[in-house]
């Protein structure tokens, strides 16, 4: 300690009394700046005028200020953290997109915090709030929007102050009310293209295994498929549309329900590949051969479906690329207008679909 500093400390704290610890506020006061400016000058994360930086560093040296290393690490990390909130990272669809995010983040030396909501809307709002408190650099919402105005208002209430403070948000899939950067898979168009491809194989009797109707992904895929059939003069009766969970077990149960209703389609379309995997097992349990007795198609082209026997016909989406696009949007230069990156799907015909036969009866 210098003689000058010792004299200053003796004046402030007579010998025999223990001086209080030197805090960031103490340094800021001595330098004549705000605590925020002092913090920025000391941790170097934001530009500070050299004159102010010099005053802060001089005050810190004079007072013997020792920064809280843990707090500095948190502050630094928060500016290099990207939060990813998805429905369920164990689902191969979300896992593939998250893989793209993490690969792109690693190239930028960013840390990814990954959370699964398990389709719990309250949990999603809570995770956004936590990431705001952690001062994450960006928040990515990966998964379908929900047709629920109360949820939309709650999400907007969390995201608006975050973006006003400089946080960045990007979403994958359609969120009606959020004016943020979006990676938008063309679900409606992809499902319509799949329907036309199946019609070209001679199919006219269809069953559809779909998910929760409030999810925008479900609405778009079902609408696109139904509209393409209608354009060809093919009806899709309501009793041949069965709702289930967006899971393997959901697809299994929905396929069994479709058969229990007496439906005998020549082709079953599951609106996600994961549901189609469950449907394949259910059809086999009922003694039906795919595609000899009934054809089967999905949507997404998760890696697993190429290894099935038979391999699954689907609509392929570049899932990892979608993750890379999402983080690129979130980290782009700020703009007054949000951007939408549309991602088309590609129909991939594989062995699970054949030419139409007399049905699965």
Automatic annotation (TrEMBL):
Keyword Transcription regulation: yes
Region (Disordered): 1-22
Biased composition (Basic and acidic residues): 1-13
Keyword check for Translocase: no
SUPFAM superfamilies: lambda repressor-like DNA-binding domains, Periplasmic binding protein-like I
InterPro entries found in the cross-reference section: HTH_LacI (IPR000843), LacI/GalR-like_sensor (IPR046335), Lambda_DNA-bd_dom_sf (IPR010982), Peripla_BP_I (IPR028082)
UniProt domain HTH lacI-type: residue ranges: 22-76
One MF term in the entry's GO annotations: DNA binding
Listed PANTHER family: LACI-RELATED TRANSCRIPTIONAL REPRESSOR (PTHR30146), LACTOSE OPERON REPRESSOR (PTHR30146:SF153)
Protein name: LacI family DNA-binding transcriptional regulator
Organism listed in the record: Streptomyces luteolus
């Amino acid at each position: 300690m210098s003689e000058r500093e010792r004299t200053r400390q003796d004046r402030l704290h007579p010998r025999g009394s223990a001086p209080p610890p030197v805090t960031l506020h103490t340094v800021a006061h001595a330098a004549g700046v705000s605590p925020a400016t002092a913090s920025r000058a000391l941790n170097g994360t934001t530009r500070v005028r050299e004159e102010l930086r010099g005053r802060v560093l001089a005050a810190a040296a004079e007072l013997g200020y020792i920064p809280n290393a843990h707090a500095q690490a948190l502050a630094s990390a928060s500016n290099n953290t990207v939060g990813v909130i998805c429905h369920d990272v164990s689902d191969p669809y979300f896992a593939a997109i998250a893989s793209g995010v993490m690969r792109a983040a690693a190239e930028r030396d960013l840390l990814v915090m990954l959370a699964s909501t398990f389709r719990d809307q309250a949990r999603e709002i809570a995770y956004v709030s936590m990431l705001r408190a952690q001062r994450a650099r960006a928040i990515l919402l990966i998964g379908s929007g929900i047709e629920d105005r109360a949820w939309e208002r709650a999400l907007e209430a969390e995201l608006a102050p975050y973006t006003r403070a400089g946080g960045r948000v990007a979403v994958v899939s359609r969120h009606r009310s959020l004016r943020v950067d979006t990676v938008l898979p063309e679900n409606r168009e992809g499902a319509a293209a799949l329907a036309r491809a199946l019609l070209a194989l001679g199919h006219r009797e269809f069953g559809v295994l779909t998910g929760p109707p409030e999810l925008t992904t479900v609405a778009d895929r079902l609408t696109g498929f139904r509209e393409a059939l209608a354009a060809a003069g093919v009806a899709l009766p309501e009793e041949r549309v069965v709702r289930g969970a967006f899971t393997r077990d959901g697809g299994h149960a929905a396929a069994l329900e479709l058969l229990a209703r007496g439906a005998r389609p020549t082709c079953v379309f599951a609106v996600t590949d994961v549901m189609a995997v469950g449907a394949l097992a259910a059809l086999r349990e009922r003694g039906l051969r795919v595609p000899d007795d009934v054809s089967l198609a999905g949507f997404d082209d998760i890696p697993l479906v190429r290894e099935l026997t038979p391999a699954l016909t689907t609509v392929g989406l570049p899932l990892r690329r979608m993750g890379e696009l999402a983080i690129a949007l979130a980290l782009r230069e700020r703009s007054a207008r949000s951007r939408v990156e549309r991602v088309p799907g590609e129909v991939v015909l594989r062995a699970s679909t054949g030419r139409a036969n007399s049905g699965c009866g």
